[in-house]
Amino acid sequence: xxxxxxxxxxxxxxxxxxxxxxxxxxxxxxxxxxxxxxxxxxxxxxxxxxxxxxxxxxxxxxxxxxxxxxxxxxxxxxxxxxxxxxxxxxxxxxxxxxxxxxxxxxxxxxxxxxxxxxxxxxxxxxxxxxxxxxxxxxxxxxxxxxxxxxxxxxxxxxxxxxxxxxxxxxxxxxxxxxxxxxxxxxxxxxxxxxxxxxxxxxxxxxxxxxxxxxxxxxxxxxxxxxxxxxxxxxxxxxxxxxxxxxxxxx
Length: 250
Ligand code: IPE
Ligand code: IPE
Ligand code: MG
Prior knowledge:
Elements: E1 13-17, H1 21-27, H2 32-52, E2 57-64, H3 72-95, E3 99-103, H4 111-124, E4 131-138, H5 140-156, H6 167-173, E5 184-187, E6 206-209, H7 219-230, H8 240-244
Parallel strand pairs: 1-2, 1-5, 2-4, 3-4, 5-6
Helix pairs in contact: 1-2, 2-3, 3-4, 5-6
């Protein structure tokens, strides 16, 4: 484990696919939904970890744009859990100076849920601690598609020339353009895929996979991931020599 107090090598932005709730429950002969309930406790543990480790941004994949394909009953229960949890945790998060934000298409959610999302964002808007981004009805392809539509509109209106389209301009139209891209991506539950999460934003993110099911994830498991991250050399296309001696090489 990394030495406590050594926060300098910590990632600034961690993005997590919280996977394995259903299998955690199945292993215990419980209904899948019990896995989602246990998963909320893991969210609280991880938020607390990020808060104490001074992580700036934590993005959690709560519901993908493909998760609507699940049985109706599971989707309905997930929505209820979402609303209930937000209701219950908002005060505590606000007191902890956490800023809440949501990414994904909200129109598909109930009026009540959309209201709740807007209220919690507004209420925590000025908080300066951890930024907690919840991805709900989020899909990376959709995020990029909507950005393209917006850019095409600007071109159509004559406000933008096609040759003016560059990476910065595209990034600015995507979700969370003002936040740094994830440094560390964690996926629990053993699957090694991205499942349409932050596709554009994770171009240079370090990936970490663990077989642990999300409800079993805790501060120690999080610390292991952060420690693993701290041992990696991020080269962004350069050579090791360039990264190690930036002044000597050109
Ligand atoms: C992740 O756990 C939670 C959501 C997708 C909402 P899963 O429900 O996907 O759990 P497994 O993968 O079936 O075990
Ligand atoms: C990804 O998990 C989405 C969330 C954790 C919210 P899934 O369990 O839905 O991913 P796939 O379908 O197995 O790739
Ligand atoms: Mg899953």
